Amino acid sequence: MTKALKSLALISGLLLSVSATSVPAFAADNTQSADEFRTSKLVGSKVYNNANENIGSIEDIVLKADGSMDEVVLSVGGFLGVGTKYVSVPFSELKVSRDGSSFKILSNNTKESLKGLPDYQFFKS
Questions:
Q1: φ, ψ (nearest 5 deg) of residue 20
Q2: What positions does the domain PRC-barrel occupy (predicted)?
Q3: Fewest CB atoms less than 10 Å from the CB: which of 1, 55, 74, 84?
């Protein structure tokens, strides 16, 4: 083995040992499964009721400090942003499923019942 090959083998071995030890113990899996949903794809999605009527859309998703989902802020009413009202519902109240390459998000609420909820106030940071 030439000196250059020995050096290359030594450097490769060092790099492998460094990269193997630099993986944090808390690393999660690296593949999304079919029953997991990306919040970036949920935001903006329409929400339907059981009669398949559009009752609003997801404006934002609020997380607790521990990382768990707390509530979903829905945008209801209005047209082109005028007259829009923001309300929150528990994430557990929504049923999220895949509909081909898009999502189907269902709620037992009606547009009227959502409009009757208090306005959601975002924290001003």
A1: -70, -35
A2: 35-99
A3: 1
Decide: 111 and 74 in contact? Cβ < 8 Å.
no
DSSP string, 36-78: ---HHHHTT-EEE-TTS-EEEEEEEEEE-TTS-EEEEEEEES-
**Would you say domain 39-116 falls under CATH 1.20.1250.20?**
no
Single pTM value for the model: 0.72
pLDDT of residue 102: 80
Whose structure tokens read 């037992």? Answer: 108
Query: Over the stretch 9-24, which tens digit does the pLDDT of each residue have?
Result: 556 665 565 555 566 6
Q: Residue 8, SS3? A: helix
Q: Where are the domains of the chain?
A: 39-116
**In what helix (H) or strand (E) does residue 83 lie, and over which residues does it extend?**
none
